[in-house]
Hints:
The structure holds two protein chains of two kinds. Chain A contains five helices and two strands; from the N terminus they run βαααααβ. By secondary structure, chain A is mainly alpha-helical.
Amino acid sequence: MPLYNRLKEYRARLGVNQQEMGKLVGVSRQTISLIERGDYSPSVTLALKIASVCQTSVEKIFWYEEGEDDGEI
Amino acid sequence: MTEKSEKKNSKKSLLLFLLMLFGCMLIGGIIGGWMTIQQDSVKQYMEWICNTIQKWSPWMAVLITIAGMVLTILIYIQCKRSVDFWNGEDEEYIEKLEKKCSIGQIILIITMIFIYSFDAIAMLEGVEGENVKWIAVPVIDLLIVMALSTFMQHKYVNLIKKINPEKRGSVVEFNFKKTWMKSCDEQERMAIYRSSYRSFQVMQGAFPICWCILLLLSLCMNIGVIPFLMIGVLWILHTITYCLESLKVYDR
Lengths: 73, 252
């Protein structure tokens, strides 16, 4: 997965668990967990929402590195 | 990838495809030829398999009902107890629990499919043997399974809703799947779409295999036209639904 993130770190700063973080951005706990593990790349809208809740920019939470994409279904 | 290597790969793929096609034709020809020569013994063997399944189907139906339902209820009880012990923080714990919940639901669905099949065969046994007992047992079994499975599905959905409070819908509600889907977020919808596409791929492979098996069987015994018609209808329905839905997506 070429998309990396610091969501766990930012969530810890906010002092909320995955369930609460999910509620804040309007997704499930499972989605937050998958994003943190790097198993799911959020949409631009969701990334913006997360950044807004964390009161920072998207680039500070998410960054992209060239690599093999597992786009296979 | 350069244009030259792409062309080389394409040629290689074509050759492999032709080889596979030839191999399949050869295997099909050999099996078909063998089945025609051994027509009587294949017919006898197939009839023995069908009769055995038909004879044992009422017992199988009852046995699967008990085993499947007991397992589903036990998993549910375990999950429910575990949910009560969740502190709301331990992420690994709840992920394991959600997986267990999914396993319980899968067992429930597989049990239902088996019961539908075995109860139908059991009814056939009762009708053919004019045995009222073997008509009544599968009907009662089917009614019990339908009631129990709806109840258990309701229980599992409520448990999932307890873990994920954002989820909406009730099993008994007419538009349950629609309401549930609406309460899913982008990742969950993506998971559903991915699973659906995988299922589409598997079914597109399963239809021709079923058709081949039926065609080979028809060489040595009378299976009638209904199996071919059913495969055809399902195959068309499956393909057209996919194509129409794809067109709709692009139209949006």
